[in-house]
# Entry
Amino acid sequence: MNPLLSPFDTAPFSQIKNEHFKPAFLQAMEEARAEIDRITENKEAPSFANTIEALEFSGQQLDRISSIFFNLNSAETNEEIQKIAQEISPLLSEFSNDITLNEALFERIKTVYGQRDSLDLTVEQQTLLDKKYKSFSRNGANLSDDKKKRLREIDAELSQLKLKFGENVLAETNTYEMHLTDENDLDGLPEGEKEAAAQLAQSKGKEGWLVTLDYPSYIPFMKYAKNRELRKTLALAFGSKAFHGDEHDNQENVLKIAQLRYERANLLGYKTHAHFVLEERMAETPEKVHEFLNELLVKAKPAAEKEFTELETFAKELDAIDRLEKWDGSYYSEKLKQKRFNLDDEKLKPYFKLENVIDGVFKVAEKLFDLKFQEVSDIEKYHDEVKTYKVYDTSGNFISIFYADFHPRKGKRGGAWMTSYKPQYRLNGENVRPHISNVCNFTRSTPSKPSLLTFNEVTTLFHEFGHGLHGMLADTTYPSLSGTSVFWDFVELPSQVMENWCYEKEALELFAKHYDTGEVIPMELVQKIKESATFQEGMQTLRQLSFGLLDMSWHGVDPSGITDVKQHESEAFKDTNLYPDTPETCMSTAFSHIFQGGYSSGYYSYKWAEVLDADAFALFKEKGIFNKEIATKFKDNVLSKGGTESPMVLYKRFRGAEPKVEALLERAGLLE
Ligand SMILES: [Zn+2]
# Structure
């Protein structure tokens, strides 16, 4: 008996063995295909129920098996699971391709879509119909055969080019090393960083120390190394990845990717690639993104210039540096920050015992959203360390299952994330409640010391818990519109907004107590945390904006006029540069986020999400951070609504207006 193919509510971890996955996947896929066939072979005329809803609720078992499997592959993997993932992933993409290329299915969806105005659908149903239709049309379902053929060629070429782009960046990162044999060259680096550099050298059979372009090696060197010439050498190597005119050069690839994306968008009837991407984003259009980036630029630039002058003056006083270069920024910023705040993690950690912080985030959720978390032992877990909770509202209604997995282990990938084992939805009159999980990598306790979190870990816990609330409080009909299934530039609102409570006295008093003495964290320490969190925020903002503008400069235009990558880039950066330009470097040739990963026309969303969370939290600040009325508005219009409506509509219903950049500027201390 395969436990994955028998009915279950919470995932039956104790019974699942690795050999169960593949047969379960294969059978569930076969069943899902049969469900699709039943839709296309239906003799009745296509209707919302027999086509759109039937498609929405098809493949549910496959989805549950997939979430168990891929959640395990992230949180508790081993070689066997990884091998199964490699076998299963192509089958799953083939399965979803077969659906989006299913012409009979699309014909039925198109018929329903054509009748949409006369079907008397709810807003959620309209959203679902629109989403299903677009998942086909945006893949070329409406195109003539020769155009479809061209689209497939472009897609194939693009995936090759993206792969090549990534391989080049990786090769350039991996081949470079700075070999140091004089210990004086490492002056300024903390002991731990020196040791790491020595170990790296040793592992490659070399004397002395090695510094590479990998972040864990590169970042500390730029931050701490006294030797300016060496910082320059390393910075130029880092900044010129895949820009050396050799076999790993990405300039041609960048031009080709931009051109093919543009052609693809045109084929599908969109003006540019950015128009295509942003159709499914809260920002909606490239014009809106440009307006947003430029508004922030105008408002943040004076502060950035002031900070830059400050930094330059500081560097001059300290080391008689007369012109601050790119390779000086990180070094002098760190020095200035130390001088100004003298704040280190060790001072803060005793106030953030893990158990207290968990308790704190639950208390905040109770005060805001009437939730009660009850730890239980009758839910199966995939590892002993996982904590399981049943979540109720204060009237005793069951809301969700919550899994929390806090510590690093072999077999868990790095970072922190929220995921789900079961989405929320309504079917046959029943409101099926979700199973949500948070996975993190926090320092574990030792026999003599409890697990004490850095402040960064505290905000991470609140952040992932915010995503968790988005999942737990979901209250929609359709699973694909539920919880965090929202547009990309909206998904970080519930998570980032939660981080704000970590800086508030009223919230910290609930949980930030010294693990030994029970003393509440002193407010002057909190004030310092706040101030240091926005240190050089103007410069940081300008940097983020420059990446967003560069992204849009490649994807929001017809790129056929662009022939010189570096020249194009310099043009895009002209309003955001603080440091002198260096002709040897090029950002685009190693900008993997937008040329290899999924961030094309999406880099702006980092700042967009910050504006949203600052603007949302400003309302709490105004009315009280535990104001029930505001919290309820947030729950009813944002947290429970998933992607059932346009995010701007949802947001305005909560806030009464569109988000404005002012709250972010104020929080960041950029409004003078
Ligand atoms: Zn997040």
